[in-house]
Write a structure and sequence with these properties.
The complex is a heterodimer of chains A (130) and B (591). Chain A is 64% helix and 0% strand. The C terminus of chain A is likely disordered. The N and C termini of chain A lie far apart (171 Å). Chain B has 591 residues and is an alpha+beta fold. Chain B has three domains: 55 residues; 80 residues, Penicillin-binding protein 2a (Domain 2), CATH 3.90.1310; 358 residues, DD-peptidase/beta-lactamase superfamily (Beta-lactamase, 3-Layer(aba) Sandwich), CATH 3.40.710.10. In chain B, helix 14 packs across helix 17. The N and C termini of chain B lie far apart (148 Å). The model of chain B has no long low-confidence stretch (mean pLDDT 89). Classes of the chains: A mainly alpha (130), B alpha+beta (591).
């Protein structure tokens, strides 16, 4: 039994074998992702820093408001002290204790505006005008 | 292959399917629940969450200040500390009551009772100053705490208390200007809504909605504090000198109706809310409470003005042309009987008998003499020419019998007793009986004479300023009650009274002063006149251009000081002199 070689190409096999162009191997593009990551991280950091700053500012503001309130209270206290110290009800008895008395023998000087100006005054005025 | 297809579900498959289904349903349920929470109920839940963190607090407005006419503070609100105890935390309530209560001036027994009454919160003392509160807290006693609380203080002490009045422990106006202007002084409360953490600390970046409180307005009164002090001191001295029950003074600026001073003695402490009068210490119960209560006779007390009323009678007769100052009134006796038999009893038990203060011969007198010598009989004869109807008209025109409208609480209207059938009331009214007036009414009537016949509403507040600094002046009513000519004549007649009549002790060096003394018997509890008197003096200065009117009333002085000239005129002189100096009025009377 001799084997017969069929010279025709085996079309079926030929059809099933085809050349697929290989993909060009390239390195993954990390640049854009890196940028996005940096922006994201930067954003988070920025937000965090901003938030911290805002919180700090808010704390400082709260402290300042408290200080203002304390200063206003202190101011009111001082005003009260001044008013109490200035009160005639406090000063008058102290003055009496220290020996101050109202003058009993007072002298009042009255200027009569209708009276004619003395002659010597006219003379002095005249001289000074010359 | 066909064998596999034909394989029937085993029990394991069913269990797996059930579990799978359960898992799917569970996921679906959780998904729905998530959807419900995150989408459907989200706004409501967010609101509930916020509400748990939100707290709403009322922002108390700062109560307005009260100033005198020179900007001196009469009343202001500062922050104090209120000490309180949580009795459950106290180790020894008795020690707290005795030691801490004693240090704060609190009744130890009463405090101990409150601390052991089962209450969970007890005030030890409210509104103490910060130093005192801190010294108590520094003791480190467990169960004692303090919280800030505003308190009203009056730096001038008792001096201006009859003007300012006072507030209660909660800062609500109860008397005087504090009550009249309570709403304006209080301001409008604000509101703060903010997020807080569990420990109550506000979340700084959280939600907040703050409507600020609007502070109360500031009142600028017409009072001159040094003059007010002088008036009070003069009153205190007068009470000591004359042995009187009380003394009251009011000083008015003639041209504006501004009240420069209004005070009296005994004095009232607006911070303790009690009258400072040793006489009260001897009393108990209701009498003691009445004694310690706030009084202001200048506005609320009524008295028969006596001879000071003659100004109105004579002015009315002059204005109506019935007399002039030189008109001679014939046969002026020292006694007049308008009801038959009234003068037969020396005790004057029957009304209708009128007598002059001093006995004198029956003689002809001019109107000027009648006024300067304060003749009751002569004045009644002048009033007879005028008639009751016109006399009443002028009394009312001068502001008696109705409230002056002064910006103060509970002003008395006074009494005009002209009831039908009283045929002698006109005569009584002509000399200051059958009429009851307040010292303020009398001062305003005299100020009208000093102001060339123009009556002006007396007032205590010149202006009020709101938080923006806008100034709102107090409106005043004016009315012409007599002509300027009659007013000038009356001023000169008043000057005569001081220069050579009954009011000589009311003179002030350097100034021409005009005034009128008044001495009226007090009415007893039985409604009849007693021998006790109310001595008064009302006058003005300088006569060349009256600037100030001062009215003084001394209630029940001792016998030797029973008249207005003896008891009230010296007080008038002291207050008037100070007033003229304070207003820098040029002297008009060289000696």
């Amino acid at each position: 039994m001799t084997a017969v070689v069929d010279p025709r190409p085996r079309q079926r096999e030929q059809r099933s074998v085809r050349v697929i162009p290989g993909r060009k191997s390239r390195r993954p593009a990390v640049g854009p992702w890196l940028i996005v990551a940096i922006i994201a991280i930067g954003g988070f950091l920025g937000l965090g820093i901003t938030q911290t700053s805002l919180d700090r500012a808010a704390f400082e503001l709260a402290e300042l408001n408290k200080a203002i309130e304390q200063a206003e209270d202190r101011n009111l206290d001082l005003k009260l002290q001044i008013a109490r110290l200035e009160s005639p009800a406090r000063i008058a008895p102290l003055a009496e204790e220290m020996g101050l008395v109202l003058p009993e023998d007072t002298r009042k000087l009255y200027v009569d505006l209708d009276e004619e100006v003395p002659v010597y005054a006219e003379a002095e005025r005249g001289e000074s005008n010359q | 292959m066909s064998a596999e297809k034909k394989r029937r579900f085993t029990a394991a498959d069913v269990r797996l399917a059930v579990v799978g289904l359960f898992v799917v349903l569970a996921w679906l349920g959780m998904g729905y629940r998530l959807f419900h929470i995150q989408v459907l109920a989200a706004p409501d839940l967010a609101r509930q969450g916020l509400e748990q963190r939100l707290v709403e607090r009322e922002l108390a407005p700062q109560r307005g200040k009260i100033f005198d006419r020179n900007g001196e503070i009469l009343a202001l609100t500062v922050e104090a500390q209120s000490l309180y105890a949580v009795p459950d935390q106290l180790e020894s309530p008795l020690w707290v009551a005795q030691q801490i209560g004693g240090a704060l001036g609190v009744d130890g027994d009463a405090l101990y009772q409150r601390l052991t009454s089962g209450s969970s919160f007890v005030y030890i003392k409210r509104q103490v100053d910060r130093e005192t509160a801190q010294s108590i807290l520094d003791l480190g006693v467990k169960g004692i705490y303090a919280h800030p609380e505003p308190t009203r203080v009056y730096p001038a002490g008792v001096t201006a208390s009859h003007v300012t009045g006072f507030v209660d422990i909660d800062g609500v106006g109860r008397e005087g200007l504090e009550l009249v202007y309570d709403e304006a002084l209080t301001g409008v409360p604000g509101k703060a809504v903010f997020e807080r953490s569990l420990d109550g600390t506000p979340i700084l970046q959280g939600y907040s909605d703050i409507v600020p409180a609007i502070p109360g307005v500031d009142l600028y009164t017409t009072i001159d504090l040094p003059l007010q002090y002088q008036a009070q001191k003069s009153c205190a001295d007068a009470v000591e000198r004359t042995g009187a029950e009380s003394c009251w003074v009011v000083a008015l600026h003639v041209e504006t109706g501004e009240i420069l001073a209004m005070t009296g003695y005994p004095v009232f402490d607006p911070e303790t809310r009690r009258t400072v009068d040793p006489a009260c210490d001897d009393l108990e119960g209701e009498e003691r409470s009445t004694c310690l209560a706030f009084r202001n006779f200048v506005i609320r007390g009524i008295y028969e003005p006596g001879s000071t009323q003659k100004l109105i009678t004579v002015a009315a007769a002059l204005e109506e042309g019935e007399v002039d100052i030189n008109t001679v009134i014939p046969e002026v006796a020292d006694e007049l009987e308008l009801k038959p038999g009234a003068c037969e009893d020396d005790d004057d038990d029957l009304y209708g008998c009128y007598r002059d203060f001093s006995r004198h011969e029956t003689r002809d007198m001019t109107v000027a003499e009648i006024f300067s010598q304060s003749s009751n009989i002569g004045t009644i004869k002048i009033a007879e020419k005028l008639g009751q109807r016109r006399l009443v008209q002028y009394i009312q025109a001068f502001g008696l019998g109705k409230r002056t409208g002064v910006d103060y609480t509970a002003e008395a209207a006074g009494i005009l007793n002209f009831e039908a059938g009283c045929d002698i009331c006109w005569a009584s009214a002509a000399i200051g009986y059958s009429v009851a007036a307040t010292p303020m009414q009398m001062a305003a009537a005299y100020a009208a004479v000093g102001n060339d016949g123009m009556w002006i509403t007396p007032h205590l507040v010149a202006a009020r300023t709101d938080v923006d600094g806008d100034i709102e002046p107090t409106p005043v009513e004016t009315k012409q009650v007599i002509s300027p000519t009659t007013a000038r004549i009356m001023q000169e007649l008043l000057a005569q009274v001081v220069a050579e009549g009954t009011g000589i002790q009311g003179s002030v060096e350097g100034y021409r002063v005009g005034g009128k003394t008044g001495t009226a018997n007090r009415i007893g509890p039985d409604g009849r006149y007693t021998n006790e008197t109310r001595a008064s003096f009302v006058g003005m200065a300088p006569i060349s251009d009256p600037q100030v009117v001062v009215a003084v009333l001394i209630d029940n002085p001792s016998r030797e000081f029973r008249t207005g000239g003896q008891a009230a005129a010296p007080v008038f002189a002291e207050v008037m002199e100070q007033a003229l100096h304070r207003l820098a009025v040029t002297p008009d009377h060289a000696r």
